[in-house]
Structure formats: C-alpha cells, structure tokens
Design brief:
Strand order of the largest sheet: 2-3-1-4
CATH architecture of the largest domain: 2-Layer Sandwich
Shape: globular
Oligomer: single chain
CATH superfamily of the largest domain: Lrp/AsnC effector binding domain/regulation of amino acid metabolism (RAM) domain
Number of domains: 2
CATH topology of the largest domain: Alpha-Beta Plaits
Structural class: alpha+beta
Number of helices: 7
Order of helices and strands: HHHHEHEEHEH
Largest sheet: 4 strands, antiparallel
Length: 172
C-alpha cells in the first residue's frame, strides 16, 4: 500500500512497532525501543518526535487504579439533552473531576460519560448536577474484562475479523 499522507509515511511497519511498544510501556527508554524495533537510538528519537508532532502520539500516562485511590465505584452515565445546552453541559462536565471521559455521540444519548466516585451517594450528587440539563441513565460497572486496549493496525483488525468470520462458518 502506497503512503497517501504524512501520517501514512510515519505509520509504516516500524512506526506500528514503535506504537505497539509504547502502548504497552510508555516508559521504555529510546535505547530499549531501538533494540526492540531494530533502529538506532537517534532514529527512534526522531521517529517518536515526528509521531508526537503529527498528533499520532498525544501523551504518556500513568494507569491509576481508582479503587486504590478512594474511588471504588465506576459508572457510565448516558445523557439525553434537548435544546441548546451543549456548551453548558460541557462546562459542567469539564468542571466535574469525577468524569474521566465524556463523549458526544449520535442516537438517543447525546453524551456518554465514564465516572469514578467514592460512593453511591457521591454518584447521586453528580447525577443531580447533570439532571438540570437533560435526562440521565446510569449503569454501575461490576467488572471490566477489557480496559485500555492497544490500538492495532487496521490490517491486523481486518485479519482478526476475517478469522472470526471464518471460524463462525466452520462452526455452522
């Protein structure tokens, strides 16, 4: 496949190997990254810098266990809003530290938020701050069998889908 954009040129086989390693462990040294992907340290520094400048790599984060820092309840709040309240609700959500993700979407739910709270009472208080802007529906998370998955190459995803479809045909 011929590169069609600047990002495509960065996302060759080596670029995807670098992303794979960094998504697993963002604290790897450039020297160790180079050993793992077959590049010199200066080449790795340059490639990673270009990926950051292109917006492919947007940050490095520590994964924190919410339960161990006093936020044992994780919930998803879906919100349906009507009228011109998007700016207001966005402001409220940005100023609510319990909200760790907020997505605006299509369909019945205008917003879907992932929240971490101390207690059911804390969750209720957060919902009470949101209800002036629309209708909420909340689901408390019991467990998370898949979290923070690595972003895979599109061709790897297509291959996995094809294998899944083939296995379903064999099972019939």
């Amino acid at each position: 496949m011929e590169p069609t954009s600047k990002n495509d040129k960065l996302m060759d086989q080596i670029g995807w190997k670098l992303l794979h390693e960094l998504q697993i462990n963002g604290r790897l040294s450039y020297a160790e990254l180079g050993r793992r992907v077959g590049l010199t340290t200066p080449a790795v520094v340059e490639r990673v810098k270009r990926m950051e400048e292109a917006g492919i790599i947007v940050g490095y984060h520590a994964d924190v266990d919410p339960m161990k820092v006093g936020m044992p309840i994780t919930a998803f709040i879906r919100m349906s809003v009507v009228g011109d309240v998007f700016t207001k609700i966005t402001t409220v959500v940005k100023n609510s530290p319990e909200v760790v993700e907020c997505h605006r979407g299509t369909g019945a739910d205008s917003f879907i938020m992932k929240v971490h709270v101390r207690s059911v009472e804390h969750l209720e208080s957060l919902i009470d701050r949101l209800t002036p802007f629309g209708t909420t529906s909340t689901s408390i998370v019991l467990s998370s069998p898949v979290e923070q998955r690595e972003i895979k190459r599109p061709d790897e995803i297509a291959q996995a889908v094809a294998q899944h479809q083939a296995s379903r045909l064999v099972a019939k």
